[in-house]
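Task: sequence design from structure.
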């Protein structure tokens, strides 16, 4: 084993999409440290298989709103009809051990250099969708770097030294070199159900020594997943949206 600097692979919103998770793992080195930002279940056809992989491979994971809904029905009244139907299906198939694993996850994890939350710091299930919500996120923590998912949109916000906020989409992948004096909210995008008008799945590599974040957009067999969703009688809409990425 070579002595390589630490590289994290940070995944979010897998949503029971085993085929996409497997493709992501094929791009991840065995030495990489895997972190998960939640919503491992909900929508997709393989929640148990996805949790089993994370239990084996992930160094840490935080709780997403779908994970919480799966274990205690939290917030389901705010779900739309298809999400509700998929959640009822998920609650029914998820096994006791995996439910217990989800139940042991926390809302946030702080590493020395960064914070992991599903949606936003403190308001864990808030969506960071604009500069105003990004500003609230920067105010809610002193972490220089915050990794989030939840929106299923690959992008980042930077708090500039003059207090202004800049923003960039990573719809087609790309890299961010973290600059001294700036703070960042990095949205890693979604492994299981991208929503930034690109059906390619998304995750990031983070190399602390190089101060580098790289968004990876990758193909996975969407047709296979759709087939499984159809067989499971999951809502058609959830299968169709995978091919348009929204
Ligand atoms: Zn999600």
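Answer:
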């Amino acid at each position: 084993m070579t002595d390589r600097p630490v590289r994290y692979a940070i995944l979010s919103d897998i949503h029971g999409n085993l085929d996409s998770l497997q493709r992501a793992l094929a791009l991840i080195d065995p030495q990489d440290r895997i972190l998960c930002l939640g919503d491992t279940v909900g929508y997709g056809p393989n929640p148990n298989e996805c949790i089993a992989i994370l239990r084996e491979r992930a160094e840490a994971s935080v709780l997403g709103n779908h994970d919480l809904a799966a274990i205690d029905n939290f917030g389901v009244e705010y779900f739309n009809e298809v999400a509700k139907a998929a959640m009822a299906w998920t609650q029914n198939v998820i096994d006791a051990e995996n439910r217990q694993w989800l139940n042991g996850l926390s809302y946030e994890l702080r590493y020395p250099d960064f914070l992991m939350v599903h949606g936003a710091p403190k308001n864990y299930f808030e969506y960071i969708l604009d500069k105003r919500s990004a500003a609230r996120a920067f105010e809610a923590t002193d972490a220089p770097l915050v990794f989030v998912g939840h929106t299923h949109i690959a992008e980042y916000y930077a708090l500039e030294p003059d207090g202004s906020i800049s923003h960039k989409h990573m719809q087609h992948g790309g890299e961010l070199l973290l600059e001294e004096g700036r703070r960042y909210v990095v949205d890693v995008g979604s492994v299981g159900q991208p929503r930034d008008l690109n059906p390619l799945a998304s995750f990031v590599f983070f190399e602390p020594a190089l101060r580098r974040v790289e968004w990876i957009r990758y193909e996975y067999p969407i047709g296979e997943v759709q087939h499984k969703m159809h067989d499971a009688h999951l809502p058609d809409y959830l299968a169709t949206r995978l091919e348009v990425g929204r």
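The first strand starts at residue 8 and ends at 11.
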